[in-house]
Amino acid sequence: MMMIQARRFKALYLVLMISFCTTNTNEIKVDSSTSTTSTLVEDKDSDEMNSTTTTTTTIANQAVNTNFSKEKLSDLALGDCFNTDEKDLIFSTTVIKVECNEQHTYEIVFYKQLDELITMVIPPNTELIQLYIGQKCNDFKSLVEVVEFADTKYSDSWLIIQPLWDEYAYKASRLDSVICIAHLEDLNNEKRLDNTGFSISQDINFYVYNTVWEEEHTFGLVCKPEQPAFYSTFLMFYAEEDVVVKNMTFIYSNSKHEIEIEIDLTDTIQYLDAAEEDIFYYFLKVSSLYTHSFLRGEIIEKELMDIIFESNDGAGGYFSYTNDKGETFESTCDMEYNITS
Q1: DSSP state letter for 193
Q2: What is the model's pTM?
Q3: Same structural domain for residues 224 and 203?
Q4: Confidence check: pLDDT of 279 > 90
Q5: How many C-beta neighbours within 10 Å does residue 334 have?
């Protein structure tokens, strides 16, 4: 079973905004440390560590005798790590389950039963259910991508999160959950890494969930333009003490072509159990705008999507959230000129 680690951040130096603009993935600093011999997360006093100290997580040495078992992928649970040479993972795939501190390729990082009510919103055909599950895993990746910036273990790799989809299993009523599987890819050659020796789920729990903030309230929206614009990203973030987010909205706009796409993220952060986090990051990809709109029943014409995906000219974003005190905070950024306000 995964262990969710609650901790208190004495001083989280929010330089991710700066690092995000400069594409340096080693700039976010978290003032905390972990121990491999205890379930406690130790706090260091802010006097002991300045804001430019990089967090490192010690990984237990790989055991001499590897414990493993052959399992069906359908029998694995959240937090389980496994190996397989199969490229196309389906429910009936036989894999080698191993401890996460052993070398492995994959890990199940998200597992949540399909909401019975989705058939009221989405007609129950396999194509739309597949799209729905894929979008949920994309949403989860947007929430947890911060671990790539926060932990030096990820400095040379990409965190890839993919949905498990098996049409036959879905039609046979065996695939009844959103299941997201993670692996790492080499940052230099984009090849899958087969020697991961730590739990990604534990890192996600440490950096994303059960967060506590005691410093001055901060929030913002940062644009990260790429070419073509398809690969561009909007980063939304806030850090606020004892917060419950009641509403969250993002709006993509393109003044050059008079395009506006509004995305209500309230249900998304509630689905991901992130609405009560004191520290929140969300990396929204421009490439996901179409799917967000499509699943809301708002079909964007191909000509417009081609414009959005091709160029950042005139493009920008608007981010707002409202807390349980009725306070609303807003921020904007310009994708063309990389300006935040």
Answers
A1: P
A2: 0.81
A3: no
A4: yes
A5: 18
